[in-house]
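S1.2 Input.
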Amino acid sequence: MAGYYIFCDESLKKGKFYSNFYGGLIIEKREFERVKNALISKMQDLQMEDSELKWSNVNTFRLEQYITIIQTFFEFVKTGTVRVRIMFTDNRFASVPLQKGYNENRYHLLYYHFLKQAFGLKYIISDSPLDIEIFFDKLPDSEEKNAIFKSYIYRIQFLSEFQKTQIVIKNDSIYEVDSKKHILMQCLDVVLGSIAFRLNDMHKEKQPETERRGNRTIAKEKLYKEINKILRQIRPNFNIGVSTGIDGHYHNYFRHYYRHWLFIHTKLTSIMYDQDEVG
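S1.3 Output.
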């Protein structure tokens, strides 16, 4: 069956200005091996085959290597082979009274809405069923909560707004994996981390003892600037701090190669799982 893989990751939970960073990418199954092998080959060329790409590991000594591998990753984004989605919240709206149970279940609830909306799955046009397999980095919560969360991810396909789609999500196609074994997840971690870094003005942070920025901070800013340059090639005048426009067509929620979503709690009921709609 034709279909897609979706890889997901999360980053900064609480930042100075923006919080709750979630990221994901979607790729056709038939393209997966080609992209994965190209990235692994590039890592080998850079003598990084034994390293794990992580935003937290960026430093002066590895900066050029990180820039090269991220450039390679974005070559696949520029062609739409890989589509990337980033979601975050604005702390200015965090004081809005929220539904009971939101704070306790915030992590899973926001992840649920990210999966449901960010990829534009309900706008995928297909004449035949599309198998969707979803990969999460190890979920940091109890097995019980994680199981409930996965059950709602499975049931997204039965919501009324998805009735005209051909997507199929099997119960056993929702995985928790080790990102060290998935190069695409590692690239996503770097991109997601760079956005959280810049939106929270971490590039301005100085060391108390010197009142100067540290070398690692300077290296991270340089990598962010390279990523931002590429994003502006994909979408001129790209603004990382707002939701990306749809250019007049709802199907661009899926078609766009790269999108940001500033998640705002416009309706209290929209925060919780769609309990009344799920079949």
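S1.4 Remarks. The helical segments are 29-45, 63-78, 102-117, 143-155, 183-199, 215-234, 252-255.
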